[in-house]
Each structure stands twice: as structure tokens, then as C-alpha cells.
Amino acid sequence: MRAGHHSVVLAAMADGIGDLTFASREWVAAAGEVLAAAADRHADGLADLGRFSLCEVAHNAPAYLHAGPSLAWHAHFDGAKVSAHVGELCVEACDLKIEGDHSVMSNLGRISFTGSDPDVVAAAQSRLQKLSRWESHGSFPQHPVLGAVLRSLHDAMAPRTMPRFVWMTPEWVNSARHIVTTRAVSEKYADGLKNVVYTFAEEFTDTPRYAFPGGAHGGFWIRCDHGEVTVGAGPLPDALQPADALTKGIYAPVVPVGRTVNAAMTDADKEEQARYSKMAFRRDEKTGKHPVGQTSPSGRGPMPPELSRVLMPLHDELSKRSSGDLPADYDLDVKPDWGIPQGFDRDPDYDPSWLRYDEVDIYGDPLD
Hints:
With 368 residues, the protein is α+β, with helices and mostly antiparallel strands. Helix content is 31%, strand content 18%. The strands form two sheets. The chain has a five-stranded mixed β-sheet. A five-stranded mixed β-sheet has the order 8-7-6-9-10.
């Protein structure tokens, strides 16, 4: 998918961008309430189920949670009685255990069955399932009602589960679009934007081939025209040039600092980020240029405060919805200074092998 092209994954997802991280403690608490209510509605149908335990393990969890390399949850059924819990069960303790990459499982968890075209749902699932390595133990029982109960859980949690897309891809930009436009039209900010005309853009080159087919540049842009706000993916179109504020540079060095959740950073995280930034963004000895720069091509200068207030939470909220991959995970030619994983960006035990980006791109197509 290139900027402006249709996304079958977004088409199959629930509205919004969610508010809970998949398999986090808060997510499990909400899921437990939904599951209990669904089981109560289907109590008669579940009466003959017997005991059944399900466990899902999502590897490469978001670093900002400081929860370790994975998140897991499990549910115990005993007929119509059910409970949901945080944590992983061993294979021997559950009837079905599924393991995969957290970002992929998050995006699968946002797919909504009810009211969706089943062909679109199937296409979205097929694409996403190709992206992760999977481990499965056990099997799902042949029970006439259990599947319906779990599907109702899935659809109830889909709008609440946060997606996690690769940084600066068009589907990632969809989250930016939702955040910016929702705030811009709100009663709190709309009146302040009515006289604002400003264009903001970020563009990144030398993108990883698993995320940007054909070497497309990553990035996004925001155009505010007297309060009418548009958010697009990719480089700023020629018709909207020049930008009033432009950040442009090489993709790889910016990724770790581009997806930090500043509100959740510890002092140690901040110190490590400062050291990384000093190293990663220094001037190249051969070219004499920095890998990334900020300019005002139009000469209009700083962003109006009315628009700045709208964008204030954008960085952290997008970071929560970013996957943890690094270009260097799948490309040995990335400059060493930009390829060493940073503790402030992801857990030391992050395992790139849970994603198949050495074989397929984010759209499930084989790499050349």
C-alpha cells in the first residue's frame, strides 16, 4: 500500500484508534467483564462445555509499559463460569495456547466481525497472519456456543484495542489523522483554528524495504486552512508546497526517538536517549551533513500556538501505536550507530524473529 491506496486492514478494523494496549492489565480487566457478560448471556449453551483454558502470549510488547518483552493473558471456562487473568500459562496448563508478535496480534484484535464484509475481514486476517511467526499448542473444542462467546469478546474489545503499525507508514498515519482531526473539530479547539493557515510536514528517506515497497519515502503532513484540517501520508504533495515547517532526513536514525512515549520515560531512559541522539544525529564526516534537519521552506516560521495545542499529544499517542521493529533487524547494511537497539526504545529481550520482515513486507507480499 502506498500513500492514498486502499488498506484492507483499516477497512476491517473497528472505528477509532483504541485506548488499551492488547493484553495489558487494563485490557485484561475490561476483557474479563465482557467475557463474563457474554458467558452469562449464553449460560444455557455453555452448560455442557466442561473445563477449557485459553492463553495468548504477545511477544515484543511496547517498551513504554516497562512490562518486559511480552504480555500475556488467559481465560478459564468451567461451563458458563469464566474468569480472565493476566499472565502466561504453561502448555500443560491450558487447552489452547497461541503465541505471536504483539503488534500483529494487536492489529488482528482490532478487526471487527459484526457489520463487516466477511471477504474484507478474511483478506485482512490473511495479510496480517503472514507477518508474524506463530506458535500454537492444543486445539479449540468442537463446541456449538464457545466460538460465539469468544467472537463477541473479540468484537467488544476491537474498538478499545490500540493498533500498532510500522512507524511513518500510511496505516500508521491513519492514527495521526484520527487524533488531529478529532481534536481540531472539537469545541475546545475549533474556534481557535478558524484563522490559521499552516502546513507541517515530516519526510524520511532511505526507508526499509519491508515497510515501504519501491523505496517510497515515509512521513506525513498536516494542512490547516482556516480551521479545515487535512492529514496525509507520505511527502507533502507539490500542490501544497512549500511547507511552513519541514522535518526531513534519513529514516533509520530517527525511529527510536520518533516513537518514545515521553510521559512514561524514566530518568535512565532520558539519559540513554540523550546519548543516542548525540551519536546518531552528529554531522557525517564525509558529507558534512546531519542525517535529519528542520527548516521552514516558506519562511513563515514557527507553528501558530492554536495549532500547536491541537498537536500537543500527537507524539506520545502515536508512539503508543507504533510497532517495535528496527530497519537493522532485517538489513545488515544499516549504519552501526543507527542499528544498535536502545533500551529507551524497546526491551533488551525484544526478539525480531517473531516478525517475518526478512521474508515478506508489511502487506504480506514476498520480498524480492
